[in-house]
Give the backbone structure.
Amino acid sequence: MGTTDKNASIRSPGKRPGFRKSLMTLAASVMLATSAQAATPSTAEVNTTDLAVTDDTVTVGILHSITGTMAISEIGSVQAEKLAIEQINASGGVLGRQIEFVQEDGASDWPTFAEKSRKLLRQDNVAAIFGAWTSASRKAILPVIEQYNGMLYYPTFYEGLEQSPNVVYTGQEATQQILAGIDWAVKEKGAKSFYLLGSDYIWPRTSNKIARKHIDKLGLKVVGEEYYPLGHTQFNSVINKIKLKKPDVIFASVVGGSNVAFYKQMKAAGVDFTDEKPLLLTISVTEDEIRGIGGDNVEGIYASMKYFQSLDNPNNKEFVAAFKETYGDDMVIGDVTQAAYLGPWLWKAAVEKAGSFDIDKIREEFAGIEFTKAPEGYVRIHENHHLWSKTRIGQAQLDGQYKVVHETEELMEPDPFPEGYQ
Amino acid sequence: MKSSSPLKWFGSREGLYYLALAFLLAVILPLVLDPFRLNMVGKYLTYAFVAIGLVMCWGKAGILSLGQGVFFGLGGYCMAMFLKLEASTPEATAIQSTPGIPDFMDWNQLTELPWFWEPFHSFSFTLIAVIGVPVLLAFVIGFAMFTRRVGGVYFAIITQAIAAILTILIIGQQGYTGGVNGITDLQTLKGWDIRTDEARTALYFVCVGMLFLCLFVARLVQNRKLGRILVAMNAQEMRVRFSGYDVAAFKIFVFCLAAAFAGIGGAMFTLIVGFMSPSFIGIVASIEMVIFCALGGRLSILGAVYGALLVNAAKSGFSESFPELWPFAMGALFIGVVLAFPNGLAGLYRSYVMPLEDRLFKRGKAEAQTSAEPVATTASAEKTDDYDPMINTYSPEKS
Amino acid sequence: MFDGYTSSELMSIFAMQGFAGLSLFSVFVLMAMGLAIIFGQMGVINMAHGEFMILGAYTTYLTSSFFQSYLPGLFGGYFFFAIILAFLICAALGALVEWLMIRHLYHRPLDTLLATWGLSLIMQQAYRSIFGAREVGVDLPEWMMGAFQVTDLVELPINGLFVMIIALSIAVAVYLLMYRSGWGKNVRAVVQNRPMAEAVGINSAGIDRATFALGCGIAGIAGAAFTMIGSTGPSSGQAYIVDTFLVVVFGGAQSLIGTIISAFGISQAQSTMEFFLSGSMAKVLTLLVVVGILMLRPEGLMALKVRR
């Protein structure tokens, strides 16, 4: 990746050279570390940094909001992470050790996230943290986790512009979602004009910035760009504007409760998404959100993501069945939930490859780690700590599920600092 | 009214309370707690600044502001802007398209530092701004409202709206403010790394020191004639006005004082926690700050400190063991404090612990010295502070 | 600003924006009506007002699920049951809350604010425990979906019209109740002079309870109506609280007409600005203007003439 050097010094310049070197020596270490762990290695051997590892257990942390406004979104991630841990334990654990977890509540409050991550790292000495959902909570955790050299597995699709040696981003960064989505709309649907709409915070704004640049490059037109405060519930004015400008594509990154209001009001205003135009392409509405919005309100919209519950592959069938068995038949699984499920598995793979729980040793092994049993099919960790993954376009159905209508042929390369899009 | 020499004051009962608090914060807690927990206590203490301000402004003068988070946030943002600029040296940000400006500005295509960020290169300006900006806004709001005799419920709702406006504005203008993520990744203060355990512990002591400074200022105000006028205003605004006092000026003063305390608290918060975000400005945060004050006892500045400590400690404790129960406990706390213990912890202390103390104290004193004079005076000073709000404070809104 | 639009498009803009403003207006009226009664008439600040609305919304959700499962034939009409049920449940809870909590606090308006805030926290968490943290989707019967096609560009959403009709009926009903009924006369008597009202034999405690229950009941209806256009989740109620209070205060707390006028003014201002500015800035500007006017004219638009 051409921009690695540039990115490498974005955070904590003092720490970076080692990290960069580790990326360079990566190929070599991949070879070395593939020796299998037949017998359970001794604790002294796999844990030289005082992590909470005993002869038969290892403790990890789960840090999400289970109270407050973000609880709605984060609960799916907690469930997925617990499921993955359970499955790993059933299959013999990590390096012969059963995983135990300490769960902390971020309470939808950013300092609480920072405080709890500090607790997890300093008091519980966890070997990994699976957690955070919003960008703000990740930003709050980041300095802590870098200071105490922990490792965070972050599940949400997000705006990019970040690459920490102490975070593994298991969701997509913005370009993976957006470029594929817009290309698809242009190629398959002949879209010429776009209306960008989002909630007013960093992720939609950055996403729309990337979208706008890409649309400009394709020589097409953005006819409107609009942001509403989080929690806003009155979209009549923007719906009128959309009707007037008649864009081919409405590119939506509205989040939370606003979504419900937006789609209900669109539907009520006589916009039928099952028609050819306007086409609505969202990067924020997963199956989870549709539960709240109602399938009849979003029927026909398109979403650009890496995972849909309806994906037809054996991994996913197994995953969906296990998830429903554990949490009930009425569960739905969205993109982020799946990404959260990847976290513990990727951690396990890295630990076993490194033959150690030590963060620094694991970090050396990240690049190139694969997870072939991923419900989304196959993922691989890029040297920038993001995942190579396919992007899919799904069309929402009346029953609240997406039907996959398109899938990128190759894995998309994660590019958190996309040149030409900043 | 008061003991004339400072030494005597420290020997008085009130002085002993202050000494006890100082002993607890500066000696016991640092000895008992590890740096991690101590840092958390430091964070709780930053809220105590707001609570002290609320005691003055709400408890004494009867002005309930639901927007104290605004001043807390402004103070915090001023400090955060300074720290962010220090962290964004051209060397550290060399990879940005415009080196030398904070990272979030670069992401938002800003190519130069906005004008209102410029002065925050200077530490002395920042220190002035931490108090000055909140006070200025408080003055503008206070002047507009109090000279028109807006008070009570209306004032509460308007301050709440201001909190909402500022939150939306900061989130919306993310190129200038860092948006919903806030200003994060603050590293050094004048070259001193504030993220280490030693620095955090040092900052804790700075925080305790500042807290006592504010406590003494508050005490000074409350024990002067000024404080009496505030209390009188709360009980019988008309009579105070008819006695020739400019009620609005007193209200503006105490509101600005509370804003200044909140600003200092916010700045300490930024230093101790290491970032600032709009979630401390909003309505929910602002109302929570009121409960710190109410739990401690809305008339007791020392109670406010204990209130802030206890509520936050309970919050951390509860949310570690029973996260789902915390909102219930918090809600019950609000209702319980209002319905059953309107004078909070300080009120309980006065009615249950003090009589016991009196007995011990008097006996000891009588044996030690024949002149019981200091005891009598402080007791009477306490007494006047301790008038019962149930009887005459919360008369219905005059219209 | 109007470049590139034909005159017929401009006509449509104004027609549709007018309608958007009107539907925002009816939302505001619904939100504020219950609060105007509780706050304006009783001086109680009910910070749990949003949570009462959400209780109405959850009632609607449960009713719709019930009809779907047991009475699918009557599903088209479930909404009317839901509205009545929402009113009754919220009013009953309101009466209970008044009895347990509010009646002890009539002399301390600022304390009602804190206590009801506590209540709102408890209610939110209760919703979260009972209904789960996720938002619930309320299905609408077929006839409430879609829009009237007036011209090529102008379409009027049916559920928007429906919300308007509910808002209008409630406004009229409240007016009749407050100003044309014996009970309303009693309420106003208690508001204006409690001791005198008691002296002529009005049961002021009973009046208080009924007034509070009425306000909460109306909040429930508002919540039921909002399931058509907004979201129903444990914390959705909080989003409404600032707007609601501002509408009531801006209108002049003790005047129901004032509340309606202020709802109209704020909604029109906001939807007009939303059309020309971006959504966030429109919101900030609207709030700023309202706060600014309140600073200049603290008694609100329509005030009882009293000396302060």
